[in-house]
Amino acid sequence: MENLIVSARSAYAYPLLIKQLLINAMSLYGDQEISYRGELRYTYREFRERVGKLANSLSALGVHHGSTVAVMDWDSHRYLECYFGVPMMGATLFTVNVRLSPQQILYTLNDAGADVVLVHPDFVPVIDQIRDKLTCKPRFVLMADGQTVPDTAIPFAGEYEALVGAASPEFEFPEFDERTKAATFYTTGTTGDPKGVCYSHRDIVLHTLTATASLCSPREGQRMHREDVYMPITPMFHVMAWGIPYVAITLGLRTVLPGRYAPEMLLKLRAQEKVSFSHCVPTILQMLLHAAEAGGQDLSGWKIIIGGSALPPSLCEAALERGIDIFAGYGMSETGPIVALAQLPPGYQPASREEEVRLRCSTGRPVPLADFRVVGTDMRELPRDGQSQGEIVLRAPYLTRSYFRKPSASEELWADGYLHTQDVAVVHENGFVQIVDRLKDVIKTGGEWVSSIEIENLVTRVPGVRECAVIGVPDARWGERPMAFVVRQPDSEVGAEDIRAELMNHVSAQRLSKFAVPEADRIAFVAEIPKTSVGKIDKKLLRGNKAA
Amino acid sequence: MENLIVSARSAYAYPLLIKQLLINAMSLYGDQEISYRGELRYTYREFRERVGKLANSLSALGVHHGSTVAVMDWDSHRYLECYFGVPMMGATLFTVNVRLSPQQILYTLNDAGADVVLVHPDFVPVIDQIRDKLTCKPRFVLMADGQTVPDTAIPFAGEYEALVGAASPEFEFPEFDERTKAATFYTTGTTGDPKGVCYSHRDIVLHTLTATASLCSPREGQRMHREDVYMPITPMFHVMAWGIPYVAITLGLRTVLPGRYAPEMLLKLRAQEKVSFSHCVPTILQMLLHAAEAGGQDLSGWKIIIGGSALPPSLCEAALERGIDIFAGYGMSETGPIVALAQLPPGYQPASREEEVRLRCSTGRPVPLADFRVVGTDMRELPRDGQSQGEIVLRAPYLTRSYFRKPSASEELWADGYLHTQDVAVVHENGFVQIVDRLKDVIKTGGEWVSSIEIENLVTRVPGVRECAVIGVPDARWGERPMAFVVRQPDSEVGAEDIRAELMNHVSAQRLSKFAVPEADRIAFVAEIPKTSVGKIDKKLLRGNKAA
Asked: What CATH superfamily is the domain B443-547?
């Protein structure tokens, strides 16, 4: 057998490391620009130098191969420097979810064992609140960002710009095993403490390559190309902004980091910097559309991937009307994240606008290399009939194998050798997958399974409705019944019976089960629908409120 | 350190195997078409079934994990089935260079240890000639291809279509180490026996992904997209047709296999099948342009990568005039092969047609992940000044670490930890690399280094010249002097002094060293320039003829 395996030395002479994504980007696109809020601009060449300076600065603070460096910042060029500099040293970049509660942030910092924490002034009060309970005893670096720093007793080891400014750009980034931990992020599940998800260098490089292959390969529309201008609108702490900054830098795109998200600022940057490619959650898009309408901004030609939550058809239509080339993407923290994209298929000629919207809002089609299946409880693949509902399970070369220090949750995640997404979906004949619900959000009523998302999509189309969330509530007779929380458009007086009437039309047309129509007293009008720290509808909270 | 490495089980839960390139291609593009010579057509779905049938057929012949299956065929759908089916079984696909001499083919079959040889009728006489000297004792399968089979005593174990037709499509392709040998090809160097180059599954998957990222990412022009129709015109035996069939199938492209290359057939297929993406060596393109001119065919919109030899500017111009979107690619058998592509840069506005042609004919810019350097003899990177000449050395995740059973040649290849290409190049400020010569083809004359390729390009532009090859010949006074072999256009009477006069113009304009102009008696007019088995100018033979 000695000749069968190309020797280990051979295969690993060139491990898949994040630093290799930079090689050609820097040498071919050295003059390309990275900008922060349109206020600060520098070239890829300077970026690369600052990555070296950052490594020297962190090194001086004791960071070495195996250290953990936590970042608490809005989307900035400094964050992008950390995306590369920290893992390239062999340390782990911990992107702290700054929208969690101080207690949860405390838990994640201790669980990950942060050695250094880089802190934007906005998060100084959080650190003040939890500092004496930090068992990991980190050193702190301030990222002043030109802001006034609140009064604090935090013993900062220095300020980012001062440290980086004084350091040498020369740093010999080492080579090491491609399976070395590069980054970690904590996902907040429905129960228990946040769980740490790890990404190795290999994971990130392979995710970058498969995402690039998928994003770039369409003939036109819903694609990324080397002349796009990229601006993330999914926070950089959140699964590394879906890994797309790595794609953008590898391809040499002009990149705009928008800081803290404010609709007016984002729209200003979009126009001023000629941003052509972004990604965000539906809630942000909703806000952008409203702000753009108010300000009369032109959004045409903007390609936006929507993820995090399902893209409601009504929102998709509103975006298309504004000229946005919108489409959904699918993934989770545990999956890299991108495993599917709702790009329209080659040669696609839409039969109707409705059909096109359905495709764009769908879960999409898998990216190359992903073994993406919709299976029954026996793990057998279901027919592609657009009807048979099962769970999405996955294999791909960059999925998280386990949660950090959570063996039983990890085993559950990987039951039967496939990653279980908990998403219930159907597959259409053309290969497009459509999630119908989360496994735990499916409403079991009158012996039928009803999709909460399906009801939400139909209610959102009722004139006067701005947003809707549906959960199942216990019912003595039917097991469960759907309950809808509805936010009205400003000035609208839409009522429960209007909504029921519309839903009954869908029942008459056999597009909806009669069991899916909530009773009038199970349609509640609210001022706001609660969201999780990453902008998803917080159904856990809705259920809790309902129970309370 | 236990937390530093994401566990091996994790990273290799999903090894990079060729079978994973098929997963989504088959599930998303099942109706897509593969055609053979425009005569036979079937869908990706049927292709996948035949891959399973092939595996069962080979299995019945004793092929198992670690076996070597050799193929001697022209470009066919059967070859494409072998590209996938053989390595997916864990066996090694040996793509035999059918243009070698029978003695060399004998050497390579024995060296690789072929267990099974699949033989097209055209190569039955070759096998007849060498069969009794085959120490590897292979079994033979005929690929009849509807042709009359020459009289032979070869004890065929069966005929491809008959075997495949009778087999079951169900075959459980196993999972194994991604470093397992998937394919092998023999490269004919300048000295000694052909050398075996191996590609692992990991190599092929990573080459596919980086080539896809490079090929698909331009905004327009010199790019591949999902609606392209692909036809290879580099033989499938030759570094797996540059690995591009794997890219095409991964993206779900309609694919046309042209059989044996004949210009009229290729042009007929191009028109009939609406082929939009191909690749070939300059000699084939030359023939295609002549045949198209004769037949009045329209070639506009055809994207063609040129590799194997440098693309002469005059040929590039002729192709552009016919509407071909032509550009060079760079690599060698040892490099996967693609490590650079001469795609025009983002936002490129040519200053002149001449400059554009120079870029398209250049060696190009490196693909993602490739550490591509031009270095001096001390291995230091040279300045990007378009002047400093050095050798191209490489690292990339899919380079051949060693030649099969050739330790000393392997050590030479990988001196100083970089793969040595033996190509001498300059790097321009914009990152474009330009090969000026092969290390061994540079002419050392009058204390200067003169590029044989530079002289060839200028001579080829002289009216009446069709082709030119330049070598260095010993000279008592100057060390070496250039000697040019010239093929005239039909009916042309261009003479040595015409050529010298044109070259002297370039000397006057300081575009050429005076040492580069051959004496009149060192300009020889010949009927044909000898080519190697893969279509490159055979300078070894020219030197030999000259010496003789």
From this structure: ANL, C-terminal domain (3.30.300.30)
**Average predicted confidence (pLDDT) for chain B:** 92
For A325, phi and psi rounded to 5 degrees? -90, 85
Interface of A with B in 421-480 (CB under 8 A): 431
Question: In B451-544, where do the E strands start and end?
Answer: 465-475, 479-488, 523-525
For the stretch B193-216, pLDDT in tens is 889 999 999 999 999 999 999 999
pLDDT tens per residue, range A92-122: 999 999 988 899 999 999 999 999 999 999 9
Q: What is the DSSP string of B144-193?
A: -TTSPPPP----EEEEHHHHHHHS-S--------TTBEEEEEEE--SSSS
Helix (H, G, I), strand (E, B) or coil at B35: strand
pLDDT score at B437:
85
Which pLDDT score is estimated for A189?
61
Q: Which residues of B touch A369 (CB under 8 A)?
A: 16, 20-21, 23-24, 205
Tokens 């919108």 identify what position? Answer: A326
- pLDDT score for B224: 98
Q: Which CATH superfamily is domain B16-198 in?
A: ANL, N-terminal domain (3.40.50.12780)
Inter-chain CB proximity A6 and B397 less than 8 Å: no
What is the pTM (predicted TM-score) of this model? Answer: 0.90
pLDDT of residue B416: 87
In this predicted complex, what is the ipTM? Answer: 0.89
For residue range A271-314, what is the model confidence (pLDDT) as tens digits? 999 999 999 999 999 999 999 988 889 999 999 999 988 899 99
Quick one: tokens of B225?
């997209």
The predicted-structure confidence for A157-207, as pLDDT tens digits, reads as follows 999 999 999 999 999 999 999 999 999 999 876 556 889 999 999 999 999
Tell me if residue A302 is catalytic.
no
CATH of domain A16-199: 3.40.50.12780
How long is chain B? 548
Q: How far from A244 is each of A278, A341, A416, B491, CA to CA, in Å? A: 9, 13, 30, 59
From the candidates A46, A152, A175, A444, give the one annotated as an active-site residue.
A444
Nearest-CB residue to A431 (from B14, B21, B27): B27
d(CA A150, CA A141): 14
The number of C-beta contacts closer than 8 angstroms across A and B is 200
**Which pairs with CB-CB distance under 8 Å and at least 24 residues apart come from B415-420?**
B416/B379, B417/A13, B418/B373, B418/B375, B418/B379, B418/B393, B418/B394, B419/B334, B419/B335, B419/B393, B419/B394, B419/B395, B420/B391, B420/B393
Task: Determine how β-strand A40-43 pairs with β-strand A33-36.
Answer: antiparallel
| CATH entry 3.40.50.12780 includes domain B201-368 | yes
pLDDT at B471 (0 to 100): 93
